[in-house]
Amino acid sequence: MSAEREAAEVATVVAAAEAGPAEDVSSQPPSAEAMGDAQPPAASEGAAAAAPPPLRCLVLTGFGGYDKVGDRVMALMRSGMWQEEVTVLSAQTFLMPESMTFEEAAALLVNYITAYMILFDFGNLRPGQSVLVHMAAGGVGIAALQLCRTVENVTVFGTASASKHEMLKENGITYPIDYHTTDYVEEVKKISPKGVDIVMDPLGGSDTAKGYNLLKPMGKLITYGMANLVSGPKRNLMNMARIWWNQFSVTALQLLPANRAVCGYHLGYLDSETELVSGVVTRLLALYNQGHIKPHIDSVWPFEKVADAMRQMQEKKNVGKVILVPGPEKEN
Q: Which of 27, 39, 162, 249 has the CB geometry, 3.0–4.6 Å to 17, for a possible disulfide?
């Protein structure tokens, strides 16, 4: 194969696709960490499907790095995946384990890559440390809880509605906090007066400043979203302006005496870092195969009910990942 053809190698797939990193809706995928001692083991090689999967799955039909057409794969793209047929670079496809469902595959990549890189690449999570996870019942939140369980003696604080606390305990949370009725800053300080080692911040606005002030010395705040900009079913320009005005800002001279770090993360801007992201996926698949992580699916919706799926999230009813698929509606 020529160098030009290798550079342009792509896989054509039949599928529904995954939502972007700022969203919590994914579509059905097509057919086919610097942690020191705390780093999970490397993954074993995935297995191909014994028979071509049905149309609702991502199916490899063109060039690619796998043995045969019909391998079940997950695909990672920045946008353009809410459709039945997509063309993706073969380097952006990952072989699914035999035991993984297509719904789990759709929920795995964006959520678990995000949580893993925040906790281990930026956060350098180690045994005995503590983490504050906002939106703990969302896709990234549950992924973070499960990943924290892979490191010994990690204390996890998480914010979520009271009705979701029992499920969060099942996924490893130590102290669930109902942000509707409780000041989470006060709750954290009651239990850990010095604060926490890592804050995962998808909220933005004044919550970023609160998270920064909760950090212990040598603590890290990783911001990866601005969920506070969305305050209801309709766009509220006044609220957006208020959140933007109150957005946290810090200078290098302020960070020096504070002994804290502030990091920004956006998976969508790592699309050219193929080796980096692929290494994370390899470690995640090892953890999946060992039973340490398992995506939690809230509900599955056909493409024609995308508005209902988005409403499920906007009204904060979901626990885990909301999935979009082509084909008929599945019972939730």
A: 27
Residue 284 counted as domain residue: no
Band of residue 91 on the pLDDT scale cut at 50, 70, 90: confident
pTM of the predicted model as reported, rounded to 2 decimal places: 0.79
Q: What is the arithmetic mean of pLDDT over 310-326?
A: 88
The CB density around residue 294, as the number of other CB atoms within 10 Å, is 16
Tell whether 198 is covered by a domain: yes
Q: Is residue 68 part of a domain?
A: no
Range name among 140-144, 253-257, 311-315 with the lowest pLDDT average:
311-315
Q: Give me the CATH number covering residue 204.
A: 3.40.50.720
For 302, how many CA atoms within 13 A lie in the half-sphere containing its CB? 6
Counting the structural domains of the chain, the total is 1
Please report, as a single letter, which amino acid is at residue 170: E
Give the range of the structural domain holding residue 195, as residue numbers without chain letter.
Answer: 123-264
